[in-house]
From TrEMBL:
Species of the source: Paremcibacter congregatus
Membrane-traversing stretches: none
InterPro entries, per the entry: ASHA1/2-like_C, START-like_dom_sf
Family the entry assigns: Belongs to the AHA1 family.
Protein name according to UniProt: Activator of Hsp90 ATPase homologue 1/2-like C-terminal domain-containing protein
Residues annotated as domain Activator of Hsp90 ATPase homologue 1/2-like C-terminal: 20-147
């Protein structure tokens, strides 16, 4: 019998970026392939680096990781799109869609800057794998949001 993990705390990440919410939102959605670590990102079944991440602007559409040859895989699906305040999407990078977790990103003005808050929840859907996947993703979001995205935004004029 599979062990079910209950009440796994969500991942909570916040970063303040010295740009407007409009700019930070656009950077996150429209330029993901420019700041995401594509060379280090692959699907669990393929061991080749991504060429791009396609992030949609219409609810229900797929978020896709694509290789240089145009093939790829589904990372998740957009569930809410409120420009420039909030996005919500499912996340199942390397997992079955039935095990999708949920990522919510909000963009809040703080003076002339923007506070980006990321919440990644739903680890219980992964059963016994939930706690380990949560730990792994905690460090991943630290790198991706706390370092790479923040640095990429800071370099933009």
């Amino acid at each position: 019998m599979t062990e079910i993990a209950n009440d796994i705390d969500p991942i909570l990440k916040s970063v303040v970026i010295d740009k407007s919410p409009d700019a930070v939102f656009r950077f996150f959605v429209d330029h993901m392939s420019e700041w995401w670590p594509l060379e280090e990102s692959c699907d669990a079944t393929d061991n080749k680096p991504l060429a791009r991440i396609v992030f949609p602007r219409e609810i229900g559409q797929e978020i896709r990781g694509e290789y240089a040859d145009g093939t790829g895989f589904v990372i998740g699906r957009l569930r809410h799109f409120e420009e420039p305040r909030r996005i919500l999407f499912t996340w199942h990078w390397g997992w079955e869609p039935t095990e999708a977790t949920e990522v919510e990103v909000s963009f809040t003005a703080e003076g002339s800057a923007t506070r980006l808050d990321l919440v990644h929840r739903g680890w219980e859907k992964l059963g016994a794998r939930g706690p380990k996947e949560r730990r792994d993703h905690e460090g991943g979001w630290d790198l991706i949001i706390g370092e790479l995205f923040r640095a990429w935004c800071a370099a933009k004029k």
